[in-house]
Amino acid sequence: MKRIASFVRKHWLTYSFVLLCLVGVDAVQVYLPVILGNFVNAVTAWKPGVSKFAYLYLGLVTVMTLMRYVYRYTLQRMALLFDYDLRRQTFSELLKVPLDFLYDYDIGDLMSRLTNDLQAIRQFLQMGFIGLVDVVVLGISTVVMMLILDRVLFLYAMVPLVFVTLFTVFFSRYIFVLFKRVQDTFGLLTERTQEFLTNIRVLRAFAKERKALAIFESVNADYYRYYLQEVKLDAMFGPVTGLFAGLATLLVIWAGVSELRQGRIQLGTVVAYVNYVNLLVWPMMAIGFGLSLMQRANASMRRIEDVLYAKKEVPCFEPCFHAGDFDHLRVDHVSFSYGERIILKDVSLEVGRGELIGLTGPIGSGKTTLTRLIMRILEPPEGTVFVNGVDVRHIPLWELRSQVAYVPQNIYLFSMSVFDNLRFGNPDITREQAWEALEIACLADDVRELPNGLDTMIGERGVTLSGGQKQRLAIARALLADRPLLVLDDAFSALDTVTEDKLLKNLLDYARLEGKSVLFISHRISALLPTDRVYVVIDGVTREYGAPADLIRRDGYLAHIYRLQVMEGLAHE
């Protein structure tokens, strides 16, 4: 809640104006029963000029309505401003968290924090502020006016209304726990929905629709059950407070009639008191209402602060150096583990300017982890990864990653046109450059056959494209980024051999012509043969390295893979 208090302090002038309007509205509300009581007394006494009370009442109600509009509009505008700033800041911080943070939190849960949780905070800023001010201003001033009018009626009125306060405080105690449970379950529900919709083709391919529905229904049932518990409390709150308010009104009328008969008060006083009882119900309810909204906002703020205060990527470890134009990448005996699971034990490799380097090894040997260490997506140990002789930990993160164009194993394309996906890494490219990159990636003919060519919309994750088309589009996107080091992480896995051979030749020609360095990660020997050197990583250790022809002549891993794939090719023929 410190963040909300800081926001209010920052905009103290606006909130002072809102407070002034609120106090003005409360003052008018407190004075209106007095006017109504005087009007009733004047009418019952047949006094002349009673219309002045009606005009005064109407004028004050009009002023109160205008002030109420102004403060409600201003509060909602400020709540939206806070929501806008916090949403932007939260998303900005999400972009800075390390990769392991995303392993601990589901995407759906993070989405719910940016939607439902922010809505709960916005509701508190809109209505909680009003409730807390009314408790103090309207509540105290109403009590004072009731004491001035008649102390006997005050005692009758307060007995039931005290129970309203006790009930609302009791009610608010359970809101925090219930609401946090509801929000957590909603996050899980969002995550399951996002997961199943993203992989709907896999679900259908394996005929797992019923199982997915069962899992979704289980989470949905939990959400329904937890939310129903909160609904039961909410449903009870209004009727119970209304019951106590009705009892207070009944006691005031009963005691007021008794005092009227004895001639100690006038009818207008009883009428004013009944209005004050109804007026006092809201401040007493607002204690619980404001606490309830505050508890919800507090629970939601804690969930959002999990992101805001999460460990972030370090932009640059001191002292910082600029590496300059890419010339040389060196990985020197790097080791890395995910918790207690050791992935890399002793891996070394070098990529010089304009060199084509191959990297291979069994599945799970740590090749992808190595690429992430090079780009500091994962944090490498000190003194293990260098660009131009400078430790990557001491190179500004934006500068390091601007040196690398990366095509990962799992291709992600955005739900926009082919051209917009291509210009993602370089917004300034022309359509001619896009076609040139597509030609190199052997995708130009496929794009021409699409309904709108470059302007064809592709679904989220490239759902309208085949696996091979997505890989080639990602390669074209990386080429258009125009960075000195191109890292291809098993980027040919979905291609047929004919397309692979043609694409590989195009990439080699492009790299030689443009002086680009390329790191090929592949299990296919055909992609490794044209490289200058191949590094073989087995069990997290660099076991072999050298020219492909030299490694094939040895009786090692690459020679074994070469013989297997040659035999597979002959068998296929």
SSE arrangement:
Layout: H1 2-10, H2 12-44, H3 51-94, H4 99-104, H5 107-149, H6 151-173, H7 175-198, H8 200-205, H9 209-261, H10 267-308, E1 328-338, E2 341-352, E3 356-360, H11 367-374, E4 385-387, E5 390-391, H12 397-401, E6 404-407, H13 418-422, H14 431-440, H15 444-448, H16 467-481, E7 485-489, H17 497-514, E8 517-521, H18 525-528, E9 533-538, E10 541-546, H19 548-553, H20 557-572
Parallel strand pairs: 3-8, 3-9, 6-7, 7-8
Antiparallel strand pairs: 1-2, 1-4, 4-5, 9-10
Helix pairs in contact: 2-3, 2-5, 2-10, 3-5, 3-10, 5-7, 5-10, 6-9, 6-10, 7-9, 7-10, 9-10, 14-16
What features would you highlight for this structure?
573 residues, alpha/beta, six-stranded mixed beta sheet, four-stranded antiparallel beta sheet, 20 helices, 10 strands, 10% strand, elongated
